[in-house]
UniProtKB/TrEMBL annotation:
It comes from Kaistella montana. The keyword Nucleus does not apply. This is Ankyrin repeat domain-containing protein. It holds the Pfam family Ank. It comes from the Bacteria. Keywords: ANK repeat, Repeat, Signal. ANK repeats lie at residues 90-122, 258-290, 291-323, 324-356, 404-436, 437-470. Residues 1-19 form the signal peptide.
Amino acid sequence: MRKTFFAAFFIFAAFLGKAQKNTLLDGGFWKNNPSLETVKAEISKGNNPTQQNPGFFDPVVMAINNRASNEVIEFLLAQKGNTVDKKTHHSRTYLQWAAASGNLEVVNTLIKNGSDVHYKDSHGASIIGYAAESGNQNTAVYDALFKAGVDPKEKNEDGANLIHLTIANDADFKLLDYFTSKGVSFKDKDNYSRTAADYAAKLGNLQIIDHLIAKGVKPTDQALFFATQGSRAKQNGLDVYQALVEKYGLNPKAVNPKGATILHSLVRRPNAEIISYFLNKGVDVSKADNEGNTALMLASGGKDLKTVEALLAKTKNINAKNEKGETALMKALASGSAEITAFLVKNGADVKATDLSGNNLAYYWFNSYQPAGRPGQESQTDDFSEKLNMLKSAGLDVKAPQKNGSTLLHLAVDKGDLYLVKKAIELGTDINTQDADGNSALHKAALTAKDDQILKFLVEKGINKTLKTEFEETAYDLAKDNEFLTKNNISIEFLK
C-alpha cells in the first residue's frame, strides 16, 4: 500500500511538472517552424493548444508571431477554446496579431469566421491601428479590413491617423502614397497638434522627416518625445537628438502633453550620453509632470545608478513628492535596486517619509517582494534583504503600523504569500494588531484565503481567534462566507 501510494504520488508529480511546461508556449519551439505533424504530436503528448501563459499569450499567438505556416495556425484556431473573440495579451484578439504580422490568409479566415474588425484592445488600439503601429507593410491586409467595414480615415484615441501610425516604418513612402489614395491626409495633426513628421522621429529616420518637410509638414518639439520611443529592437542614438535640436531647431526644454520633460522619457531606457546632452542643454531636472513625478523619481524606480547620480547632482530636493505623496526613495524601494536605495539614503533621502495614504517606507519595501519562480528571483530576494538592512540601519521601525493600522502581516496576508507572512512575524510584528476596521491578519486571511495554509500557520503561531471586527465578526464567521473554502470543502473548525 505504501509503495503504491508513493508510486502514484511521483506519477502525479511528474504529470504536474509536465503540465506546467507546455511545449506549445515555448518560443524556441516556434522558432524552429514546426510542421503540422509536429504540433499534433505535441498535443498528443498532453500539451494544451489553448492554454495561456502568465502574460496571456497562447499557442495561436505564438504561432502567428513566429510566422508559423498557415496550416498550423488554422489548425490551432480550430481547437475548442480558441475562439475568434478570445482575449490574449493586452486583451488583443487573434485578428490584431494576424493583421500586425501581415498574414492576409489568416486575417481573411478570422474575418470570415466573425472576428470583430472594430474591436479595441486594453490599450485602446484598434485592429488596423495596431497593425499600422506594429509596422505591417502588406497593403492587402489593410484592403481586407477596409472591405470588412473599417474606415480608412479612422483615428486613435490621440487623434492619430493611419499615416501617423505607419510613417516611422515607411522608408520608401509606399504606405504614405497608399493611405493618401484612400483619403487619409498626411497634413493632419493629432489631438495635441503633433504632425506626421513628429511621429516619423520614432525610429530616427531623418530622411522621412526631410521628405515630409518638403511636402510642407514640419516637426514640432514633440518629435523629441517620439524619438525616445524607438522600438524593442532599436533605441535612437545621440545623433538623432542632436539633429532634432540643432538641424531642425527643436526646443530641448519642451514638455509633452503629460507635462513631462524629455528626461522623464529618457530615464526609462537610460543612455548616459544622451541624458548628459540634455542636462547640458539646461533641461530642468526638478520639473514635475502632471502626476507630480520628477525624472529622479522615475529613474530611482529603475536599475541604473549612474542615471540617478547624474540627476541627483542637479536636483534641488531629493525628498520631493508626487501627487500620491511618493518620493524617489519610495520608488527605489518599490522597484529600483538596493544600490540606488543605498545611494539615496546616503544623500539625505528621508527614511521617515510617508505618502498621502500614510504608508511608510516599510510598506513600499514589503510590496517589492517577488514570489519564487519568477525570472531573476534569487537576485531580487538578495535586493529585498539588502533594502531591509538599510532601512533598519537608517532607523526605520519596520514593525510600526501604517496610518490605517495595518501591519506588514496584514500586507503579507493580502498577498497570500506564506513567505511574507513568516517574514513579518520574524521581524517582530505584533500578530494580534487590528487595523482601523478591526481586522486582524487572521480576519483578512479568512476573507481571502484560497486554502487553509496561512490560516493554520497563524493559528499555530498563537494568533487570537476570538478577536472581533468592528461588526463583531470573528475569523470563523468570515471564513464561513469564503467561497474558495466552502466550495473546496476545506474545514474551518480549527478557527473556532
